[in-house]
């Protein structure tokens, strides 16, 4: 339903990933943790990165997903997005390349995306899910104020090597537009 909306924070620029980002996306998605904890294909090919960049433009136009590249400078170090946008809600998803970890970039970028979701988009709820054991993702969600809602058994698809598929248990948390965005401690 529209063109990508760039966002900025104190340290970051968030823009839609484009063809110039294909190599950085491909390299980042070689990380075993990204392949294990997210739904990216495994093995991840350059063609997968090219396809992803093409889909991002389609999703923005359709209004079904909004995806941003996270840039502390010119180079992409991660991706954050609002997925499954419908009826006042969306799901927050993200990954960070190893070179971008440990700087607080993801929490900063995701906070800007949440501001956009609850502000101009007027969403009421954002859901977060992660494979049980993904402590990095859970840490970001807790810093953003998400409230843990539980574990959904075998709720998340897994893409293994050689096309093998399966399902993993997933942590689920939610953030409402009316919730205080204070850090949470889930005790996981």
From TrEMBL:
Originating organism: Microbacterium faecale
Pfam families given in the database record: Acetyltransf_3 (PF13302)
Keyword Flavoprotein part of the UniProt annotation: no
Similarity comment: Belongs to the acetyltransferase family. RimJ subfamily.
Name assigned to this protein: Acetyltransferase
InterPro entries membership: Acyl_CoA_acyltransferase, GNAT_dom, N-acetyltransferase
Residue ranges of domain N-acetyltransferase in the record: 10-168
GO molecular function, one term: acyltransferase activity, transferring groups other than amino-acyl groups
Gene3D superfamilies given in the database record: 3.40.630.30
Alphabetic keyword roster: Acyltransferase, Transferase
């Amino acid at each position: 339903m529209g063109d990508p909306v760039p966002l900025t924070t104190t340290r970051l620029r968030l823009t839609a990933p484009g063809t110039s980002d294909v190599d950085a996306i491909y390299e980042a998605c070689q990380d075993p943790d990204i392949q294990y904890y997210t739904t990216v294909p495994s093995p991840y090919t350059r063609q997968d990165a090219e396809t992803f960049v093409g889909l991002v433009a389609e999703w923005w136009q359709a209004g079904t997903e909004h995806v941003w590249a996270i840039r502390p400078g010119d180079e992409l170090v991660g991706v954050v997005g609002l997925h499954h946008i419908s009826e006042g809600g969306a799901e927050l998803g993200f990954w960070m390349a190893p070179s971008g970890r440990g700087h607080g970039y993801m929490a900063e970028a995701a906070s800007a995306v949440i501001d956009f979701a609850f502000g101009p988009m007027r969403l009421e709820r954002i859901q977060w899910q992660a494979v049980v054991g993904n402590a990095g993702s859970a840490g970001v969600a807790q810093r953003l104020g998400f409230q843990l809602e539980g574990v959904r058994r075998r709720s998340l698809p897994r893409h293994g090597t050689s096309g093998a598929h399966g399902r993993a248990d997933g942590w689920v948390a939610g953030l409402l537009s009316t919730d205080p965005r204070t850090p949470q401690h889930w005790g996981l």
